[in-house]
Design goal:
This protein is α+β, with helices and mostly antiparallel strands. It contains six helices and seven strands. The chain is globular and about 55 Å long.
């Protein structure tokens, strides 16, 4: 039995689509983005639950998401900023800062998927996190978290103590 949902109840041409079809087409992701606007992230688990349907759209391609937050840490927007291959993704801190400024973001959370399913941060993940955090620090943007999703699980770099440690290193370096 295939589950269906009516995504267009308010339009004249209603149609039934499967959950998988809605997920893969991006319709569900758009609904997620709209429904969480203005919400505050209360825990890494809450963040992961928001990200799961977004990440599920790209099971074989690494995607890098930015969650832009206002001064009250409420979500302004969730955007894919970078797209890669099955094993990597080029990320540019300059473009992240530009997007933060364009959106008027006071804070930032970043997340990406590992199509391999391995949620452990790679050396490259740690290095790019440090670069993004340094750029945020210089620009006065709060950096809160980097989450890695894969194989039905996630890794919160903040919960593992990596983000606070990197913040200390960056403050010592740049102060």
């Amino acid at each position: 039995m295939q589950k269906t949902m009516n995504l267009f109840a308010s339009t004249r041409n209603t149609r039934q689509v499967s959950f998988k079809e809605a997920l893969l087409s991006g319709e569900l992701a758009g609904m997620v983005n709209e429904s969480v606007r203005g919400e505050e992230i209360s825990s890494p688990e809450t963040l992961y639950n928001i990200l799961k349907p977004l990440m599920a759209q790209h099971p074989t391609t690494e995607k890098f998401y930015c969650l832009f937050l206002n001064a009250k840490n409420e979500i302004l927007s969730i955007d894919i900023l970078f797209s890669g291959t099955i094993s990597g993704c080029s990320v540019y801190p300059r473009e992240i800062i530009k997007a933060c400024l364009d959106k008027g973001a006071a804070a930032l959370i970043v997340a990406h998927n590992h199509p391999s399913g391995d949620i452990n941060p790679s050396k490259c993940d740690k290095e790019i996190t440090k670069k993004i955090m340094a750029a945020c620090y210089v620009m006065g943007i709060q950096f809160h978290e980097h989450v890695i999703c894969g194989a039905g699980a996630f890794c919160s770099m903040a919960a593992k103590g990596m983000v606070p440690q990197l913040k200390t290193e960056i403050k010592d370096l740049l102060s």
